[in-house]
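Run log, item B.
One chain of 275 residues. Sequence copied directly from the ordering sheet:
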Amino acid sequence: MVMSMAETKRKTHSYSALSTYESCTLKYDLSYMRGIWLPKIYSYELVKGLIFHGYAELYKSTKEFANHRYLIDYAFTHADDVSPEWLGKLTLEERQTIINACKEFKEWWDKKFYSSLYAPDEPVDEFFKIHRETKLYGDEPFPFNGVLDLYYEDDKGLHIIDYKTPKNAKIDTYRSQLELYAYFLGKKEDKPVSSISVYFAFAKDVKNGDRVYPVPLTRIPKTVEKYSALVTEITGPNRKAEATLNWLCDYCPYRGLQEYCPVSVIAGAKPQPQA
């Protein structure tokens, strides 16, 4: 369905939208300005990420979800945007890889948020001041929105933990996103953000088996300044809508479609295979 400009023009900007504009201004225009949203294309990388996030977001949020086997079944059958047809495409090896990642996350969580005051199957969110799936909104220096996987509080301040599911542990890929999250979370809570960490659930190159990587806080002011300037461009008369061919084209639903991206057609790109 194609919606009008007025219906699709956002008053706030997510990091996903901003990074889309950075990588391809045409894709941003098609998605966020013209509202042309094409069906998502199946990929194992997408499905494993959705299922893992479903597990991680809920683990020990209630006594029921402290049961690992129950939550595994729930995550596979209730993951957002994962249809039964997509689940059916998973091989046994792929399913087991996802299950192993969830089990390892459980072990990390139980160690990270352990208290002898609570039984193993009791939620500890209140005790550790854990906040899950927090919606972030901000107005200054530009309108922003996002969803933070998890943060918790202690006497040192706020601590952000975000879950990522790529094959490799590359902090730089996610640093700008988490720096913006830290900035707007600090403003929202009026407290300092003391640490940012990324939990790499599937990365094969983690060091010494530690899946949690710290993100330095030193670059936050420059990142906020950079994206403030980008929002000024997006919302001003100089906003671009030009195709940029790069590795992200492999995952673009507009690739190879003459009516949306003729540049990719000229380059020989084929349309994405439908699920």
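Observations after the first pass:
- The mean pLDDT is 91.
- The radius of gyration is 20 Å.
Flagged for discussion on Thursday.
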